[in-house]
Amino acid sequence: MSVNGQSATGPQESTSPAATGATPSVRRAVIVGGNRIPFARSGGAYTKSSNQDMLTAALDGLIARFGLQDERIGEVAAGAVLKHSRDFNLTREAVLGSALSAETPAYDLQQACATGLETVLGLANKIKLGQIDSAIAGGVDSASDAPIAVSEGLRGVLLDLSRAKTLPQRLQVLSRLRPKDLAPDAPSTGEPRTGLSMGEHQALTTAQWNISRESQDELAFNSHRNLAAAYDAGFFDDLLTPYRGLAKDSNLRADTTLEKLATLKPVFGKGLGAEATMTAGNSTPLTDGASTVLLASEEWAQAHDLPMLATVVDGEAAAVDFVHGKDGLLMAPAFAVPRLLARNGLTLDDFDFFEIHEAFAGTVLSTLAAWEDEDFGRTRLGLDGAFGSIDRAKLNVNGSSLAAGHPFAATGGRIVASLAKMLQAQGHVNGRPARGLISICAAGGQGVVAILEAA
Amino acid sequence: MSPAQPVILGEMPSLSKLYVNAAAQAARRRVLGTHGGSTLPDAGHEVRGVRADVGNLTAYQHLIGLSARDTLPAGYLHALAFPLAMSVMNRDDFPLPLLGMIHLSNYVEQRAPVIFTDLLDIEARVENLRGHRAGTQLDVIAEIRGAGKPDIRWTGRSTYLAKGVFLPGIDVPSPHNGRPDFTPPDPTAVWHLGVDTGRAYAAISGDFNPIHLSVLSARALGMRRSIAHGMYLASRALADVGPMKGETFGWAVTFDAPVFLPGRVALEITTGQAPDGTWQRSDYAAWNPRSGRKHFSGSVAPL
Q: What is the mean pLDDT of residues B182-189?
């Protein structure tokens, strides 16, 4: 996998970052703002709330914040990773249950944990091309209200029963039913092709890149500290609507310490040759929640007297061959980011904020280690050497998934809205718009990354 | 020795009848104190015009973890030929007891793809009776051709051991010094095998050998619990290697320790690729993630 055969990612070739206006033939897509509900640990405040309930709640808050009642939005796209088959039109149903005009079209999208960011990129592209003027991107997931399927045995019997025409045929089909067929089939976080859970996969990668327990705990500690500080500073006041009694992410432990994190027992990678380093503290918990982002053309935002926080500059998806361990399951962003930056003539030094989704602390640290590795840069990225390193002071400065939690499809919207607000606050840096990088890994060995700039 | 003309059977033999017959034969030999001599039957068995059942094929593909394509998987062709192989070992002039035989290894050459609608001629014979440090082993050769066609599209060599059976005139090789050391690597996959794994494969393959079906039936044959079919395990490993192997390949597996059910099996698959990314071979090894004991290993490579 080379960066399109380019080696233009070296810092020497990027004295004039060319991201802004690199594509003058299309118009800009801006982020107006976002709204989410606080994320709740599974089995907590949202236990009885469905995906549609939570997505509607997040949407209601967005509509209220930006005065979108009766507005016909160009298109709404959202999705859920754990989705019941009856929710095939989840997003359209949420729109119909909201104050938006009933003439607002909507579609569902699913790309595992990258769902939320992919809805932003897809809708931003439609705006850039002039197909729509406004859009709402989003995502929702409930680990508490997860769909449970009937067993394959029962499913086969029920389907054959519906096709049987005579009583003897029906009895014959029913006679196939066995007691074990009545056991339900709950969703799991296991990869279908390997049978390993996401945590077990990450444990292999964490060991491969020699990521220490201490560095993972430190990343988790920073995530909680930064998220708590952001709440204290009122950062989320215009990004969040309370729901079901929650006003803050319930996973946040403002008082956690490195010492407390160090006492936790490893939960993943216990059977490996290397020391097990991944704990419940440096891994994200199962979480419920929803997020939304309002996107628009500049004209639409101006006509509606709405703010423009940031522009969606570009995005890139990647996937890795993880099935036989060539790369780690969650390492696709390590390839997507170099390709994206090469296309935009940028290096890691040209960014003011890095939002690297903390699926596990080990995921973030393995990605950074890969970028800093000379051999990985040469042999896997096709570069002259290491891709580069980032200033850790710019990483997840208002906390990320380890503290906030990670309702799979809702994470993209959380990050996009927060980063857009941070970029707007930063304004211009060295005569250019403040710039942020988003990196989200996803099941199936996938990853989606994006560049945002202050509008 | 050129093989004799095969005996043409009118239809595919029934495995359940073969198992019953084998049990009866074992009892007869035990009572009469006779055995079947020290040579293998020359003649093989053949069935002509066999066609796969599409429903059975789909069930097999889903059980193994394959998408239901129209091409017959190499492991499915083994299952298709298996009753014929069993019928040869069930002949009165076959010198070893069929029940309790241990599958040591298997090598398959998939020389041309077979589609489920193809009419097939299937032949099986036994050869290469030889000593083993723990008993007597032999090879069962199965060949599959298009009906009336000379070219072999699939061939399999299954090596079985009759443990504790030593025939007169067959030398026993000196025991080698223990099994080679196996250090489990980090797995690339873990299989969670339910207690019904053996029954599920039996229902599809027709191989109702009691050691695979339940704790009770396995105990009756001296096993402490039921065990997974070797070819189920090897076929899943082949499926996990993925489509990079193409339509023709050689597929080898050596069985070590049996997989007791229910249980977990850890697996490592390593892929050899040329610098330009071309697939060269895949090697697989499976072991018990708790004890580290190796269950089986093998490889898939171009012919």
A: 93
Say if residues A32 and A305 touch (Cβ distance below 8 Å). Answer: no
- Searching chain B, which residue's CA lies closest to the CA of residue A208? B186
Tell me the chain B residues in contact with residue A207 when contact means C-beta distances shorter than 8 Å: 186
In this prediction, residues B225-248 reach a mean pLDDT of 95
Task: Write the residue in B186, B191, B269 that is nearest to A204 by C-beta.
Answer: B186
Q: Catalytic residues of A, which ones? A: 113, 406, 441
Instruction: Show the domain range for B32.
Output: 1-101+108-151
Do B113 and B184 share a domain, yes or no? Answer: no
- Residue B35 is predicted with a pLDDT of 62
User: What does the pLDDT read at residue A58?
Assistant: 97
How confident is the model over A256-261, as a mean pLDDT?
Answer: 97
Residues of B in contact with A193 (CB under 8 A): 65, 189, 240
Is A24 within a domain? no
Quick one: A324 and A448 in the same domain?
yes
In chain B, residues with a C-beta closer than 8 Å to the C-beta of A196 are 187, 189-190
Instruction: Name which of A392, A390, A452, A448 is nearest A421 in CA terms.
Output: A452
CATH number for the domain that contains residue A96: 3.40.47.10
Q: What CATH number is associated with residue B27?
A: 3.10.129.10
Q: What is the ipTM of this complex?
A: 0.80
Same domain, B139 and B209: no
Greatest mean pLDDT among A98-112, A267-281, B165-179 lies in A98-112
Distance from CA of B290 to the nearest CA of A (A): 8
Closest by alpha carbon to A10, among A374, A346, A438? A346
Specify whether the CB–CB gap between A71 and A95 falls below 8 A.
Answer: no
Same domain, B200 and B112: no
Q: Which band of pLDDT confidence, cut at 50, 70 and 90, is reported for residue A14?
A: very low
Query: How many domains does the structure of chain B reveal?
Result: 2
- At A443, which amino acid appears? A
- Looking at residue B31, its pLDDT comes to 74
Q: DSSP E strands: which ranges in A298-392? A: 310-319, 353-356
Q: Are A421 and A328 members of one domain?
A: yes
**Contact assignment for B271 to A324 by CB distance below 8 Å:** yes
Q: Is residue A278 part of a domain?
A: no
A166: containing domain: 152-182
Q: What tens digit of pLDDT does each residue of A159-181 get?
A: 998 898 999 999 888 888 888 88
- Nearest chain A Cα to B240, which residue? A193
DSSP secondary structure string, A372-430? T-HHIIIIIT--SS------GGGBSTT--HHHH---GGGHHHHHHHHHHHHHHHH-EET
